[in-house]
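Give me the 3D structure for Chloride channel protein.
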Amino acid sequence: MPNKKKSLLTRFLKWRYKNISNRTFVHIMSLVVGFLAGLVAVTLKNTTYFIQSLLEKGIVFSENQLYFILPIIGLALVFLYVKFVHKKPIQHAVSSIIFSLSKKGGLLNVKDIYTPLIAAPLTVGFGGSVGLLGPAVKSGSALSSNLSRLFHIDAKTRSLLVACASAGAISSIFQSPIAAIIFAVEVFTLDLTMLSMLPLLLASISGVLTSYFFLGNEVLFSFSLSEGFQLKDTLFYILLGVGTAFASIYFTKMYFGIFDLFKRFKSPKYKLLFGGIAIGVMLYAIPPLYGEGFGFINNLLEGEHLKALGKTPFDDFTNNIWVVIALLFGITIFKAIAMTATFAAGGAGGIFIPTMVMGSALGNVLAKVINNLGLGFAVSESNFTLIGMAGLIAGVIHAPLTAIFLIAEITGGYELFVPLMITASISYLITKNALDYTIYTKELAKIGAVLTHNKDQMVLGLMEMDDVIEKNFKSVRPEMSLGEMLHESVSKSKRNIFPVLNEEEKLMGIIVLDDIREFMFDNELYNSVYVKNLMHAPPEHIFYDTDSMKIVMRKFQDSGAWNLPVIKEGKYVGFISKSKLLTAYRRKLINYTR
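Predicted structure for Chloride channel protein (594 residues):
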């Protein structure tokens, strides 16, 4: 049977090469990928809501004390799945896709197709304070990657189709096809040319149509604008931009700070227990932290702040608007903590939707403060709720255009376009100057795997060190005499550099042929001069485990050397030559830009 399937695939591929041009096939694939990503998003949403409805029917929400239990149960189920089925830690969805595009030619594991569909609903359905967008993007991208590999699609096109899958998933979840395309361009740093634009557009349309087909006209935010932009509110939108910028910095720093805290727990079981209890405590005090939080956003947009807050220990005081403001501000503060605790405890999910929840709360808080200061100002709380979301998205993931178009599409028009641009651009500029990295890119930056619109840096990021390491160098030992070195290494080598290694294969120094050229034929020195007397330190070392290709290029530039040794785990592995590095760079640049 496998051979028969392989034969059918081979015949299909031959037929495709003869009858369908590569460009047409990419367009067809983008439609298919968009549909599959949309289907994944719909499946993910429905599975999560099914779990939540089962828990609600079981009257588990009748008492807030049960919030202590649910997150631990969900995290425990994910832990068991990871331990016995997935068998390796769940990676951050978008970060792992960026790494795949940067270092693996868009290749993703088959397990990445179904793992998000299992782990994310268990996490979110049982109260984990994370979103479903990241898992939907990861699963759709993995589907696209493996489908591309099945049809023998080249690495560059495969990467484009992975980005198409992300656009399809986002378009399906938010029913916002333009924002979906812009997300793929901003986050995955695609070149927006007609070659990439049309596949992204097709995938995005396919994804949103899939959502309409399965969910009808059901939308995430049942909201229509009642007030447009008022020029008198400009100063307040600027203030919101500054506020969301500082909130974005807080969000990002809190994320990495909590992960560092959880690193102190050596066992995943202790992380699960500590994280589950912490989330339970927060959910008991602030119920809107439960799950994704779309219901919370919708209630704020409808002006139902008490309904948005739900049942809390502070219900007796919520007739005071300043208590409500304090509780909403608490959501702004604790959403980042609850989300990161969910991740650090082993849960699966995304950060995009929690960012929106935090932004909506902050925008609503600012509007309520303005309206209740007694200074005669009055602003639209729903508009500030929406624009607060845009500010946080722009600041946290450094994607201002995605933020602007997403909220514009959600509102069904562009009446808020000016305040969206004001708030999102201010938030982005302040955050970008304060933080060079995002939650997606900080760890990737350390290994040179960050994608960028700078072509030079992009190409260097796509290069692999293994492709430029040369190993045809004859090594020598420090205790060897000059005669032994000439007889055993120099006479048998075509290179003019000789690494000096000890018995543990660690680099002690190097000898360049020019160093010994003047006396290499003096027989009297053959037995009296030793390698250890002739060797010297190389001008620089390249460290395989930590140096990115950008750092490697800089080391060549600063040292002026033509060959530099590579050290891996403390041991010598070979040399990189400047000529081979530049040749590989030019070849990669041609492939990338063609």
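The chain has a mean pLDDT of 87. Let me know if you want a second pass.
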